[in-house]
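Researcher: Sequence of Pyrroline-5-carboxylate reductase follows. Predict its structure.
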Amino acid sequence: MIAILGTGKMGEALLSGLLRAGFEPAEILATVRRPERALALRETYGVRTVSNIEAAKSADTLVLAVKPQDMGALLAEIAPYVPADRLVITAAAGITTAFVEQRLGVEAPVVRVMSNTPIRFDEAMSCVSAGSHAGEEHLRRTEDLLNPVGKVLRIPESQQDAATALSGSGPAYFFYLVEAMVDAGILLGMPRASALDMVTQSIVGAAVMLRDSGEHPVILREAVTSPGGTTIAAIAELERHSVRAAFLAAIEAARDRGRELASG
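Model: Prediction complete. Tokens:
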């Protein structure tokens, strides 16, 4: 039995992914704050919605998917009901395994996960790290939950805040870029729908090339960048406006904000 505590957008995305992967609705519990949200989950997915305490008592695996600022209160609520053999997966930005372990008060195996919104389409990037009481078995169980909804990468927990900023928030950066490119197309006289089609397919095609070719992104970019051509003219403008430096600063800011949220 798997329980998702805090079934918001990411929790619901994981829930739907588990069902697509072959889990039965009867194998999944969900917790939410609002009765209307609970009703919507039951009607849409057929899962049972329960209290946090009932979930902690009943499930073999607990996925803690509440917001970082709500994690302390959740752990205080469920700690008396979590035995030492319960696998606890924390999926909130900035929340360390030590934070969870300390508040549970038992030597439960804790695995930290950072995923992202493409989980809704089985294309998530999920980074997992083991806490001090989690071993190979617990990492594999976590990976088994996440593999059906995307790619899973094991990383040291010291890299999790960076992963949150890079891949956790990463889809938003691409949506922002697409928005800007579509606006540029409109500026050049292109209808919005056509510009969006062009940019969307370009970014999907580029992502598949990057994933499947095995080539470094510099090599792929240089293949498009002819001497004195249109692409190098565009690249020169991006460099003139310090776009690369802006991305470095933005992702560093996201990392810092994640730490702030976790600290309350």
